[in-house]
Amino acid sequence: MKRFFFLILIVTGIVTFAAAQTVDNGFKQEGVASWYGKEFEGKPTASGEIFNPDLYTAAHPNLPFGTILMVTNKQNMRQVTVRVNDRGPFVASRIIDVSRAAAEVLGMINTGTAPVIVEQMRNAVALGPVVPAPVPAPVTTPITPDPATVPVTPAPTPVAPVPTPTPVTPAPVPEAPSPAPVAPAPAVAANEAGSTTASPEAISPANPAPEVAAAETKTPVSPQLEIINVPADEPLEQIYIPAPATAPVAVPTATSTAVPAATILGGIPPRESLKSYRLQVGAFIVPENAIDVFDKLKNAGLSPRYEKNGDYYRVVLAGLKAEEIPAIAQTLGDTGFKEAIIREEN
């Protein structure tokens, strides 16, 4: 009986918590949500509060600061409550910009955006994931079976053990005589083609074969990203996502062909040109994809730059001379990039 009353008390508390976070039907929006994170960490928001991507906050175009909203992902029905402390997003068709912590709850980190429902809360007591109240398990009374209806299993009939046969020891087989030792063949002199055959002493415990050096493993380089804001009206030429390098690298043989250099879209300028150029290797919506390309270029010995252009993150090689571009194109091809866009710098 005590357990029953304790269960009733827990259910009452959960219902009270859910009632404290009821939705205000006076405000409701449907549209596309996006998220922002590390690149704005430590910077002041429109409300003056310092942005922390690990808190459950959001940017809204016009709702008052401090407004509590429930955001529901229409694709997976995940929900999170956030507090408005910033202004945005400033992109058509988007209605809210949530922090990285809220985006993880909604399951939209990899996609970058998601269709959502935004509703204002009243009497909200907590921010973060909205967990549905658990359904209590029904209390059942155990049923004692009637002894008269329980079938009686008869005792098993004992079985006489099977006698173990006596093992038979086979007669010993005489050993075959050991073969006479054979003297090692002498070393063979060089043949007509010029090759030689080594004697048995050529490779022995005293003269071990040289070990093959283990392949050098490259340690991933954490990118020291230099974020450069580019005007939003600047045209974006390319969105390129390289294929992951998961296949093993084949050892080149005498008959293998060299990896082709990356195609330079726009053409390679003449070597005598005195202008400065830059190559755009990729442009991405998800920042993690740009970081992966940045690391690959850094490990290849290049000096990439990370740029922000509106909603996109670009990885470029800037300040290049015309005479350097053919070698850089070959390095890009060896790293797995098939093309890059060239532009003159002012």
Overall number of strands: 13
Order of helices and strands: HEEEEEHEEEEEHEEHE
Characterize the overall form.
flat
CATH superfamily of the domain at 21-129: RlpA-like domain
The class by helix and strand makeup works out as alpha/beta
How many H/I helical runs? 4
Helix content: 10-25%
Distance between the termini: 82 Å
Output the keywords:
single chain; 346 residues; alpha/beta; Alpha-Beta Plaits; six-stranded mixed beta barrel; 13 strands; flat
Task: Reconstruct the topology from this structure.
Layout: H1 2-19, E1 23-36, E2 57-59, E3 68-73, E4 79-86, E5 94-99, H2 100-106, E6 113-121, E7 128-129, E8 227-230, E9 263-265, E10 277-284, H3 287-299, E11 305-309, E12 312-320, H4 325-335, E13 339-344
Describe what you observe in this structure:
By secondary structure, the chain is an alpha/beta fold. Among the domains are: 21-129, RlpA-like domain (Barwin-like endoglucanases), CATH 2.40.40.10; 258-344, Alpha-Beta Plaits (2-Layer Sandwich), CATH 3.30.70.1070. The chain contains four helices and 13 strands. It has helices at 2-19, 100-106, 287-299, 325-335; strands spanning 23-36, 57-59, 68-73, 79-86, 94-99, 113-121, 128-129, 227-230, 263-265, 277-284, 305-309, 312-320, 339-344. The strands form two sheets. The chain has a six-stranded mixed β-barrel. It has a six-stranded mixed sheet with strand order 8-11-12-10-13-9. The protein is flat and about 105 Å long. The termini are far apart. Residues 14-22, 185-223 and 236-247 have low confidence and may be disordered.
Characterize this entry briefly:
The chain is of the alpha/beta class and 346 residues long. The chain is built from four helices and 13 strands.
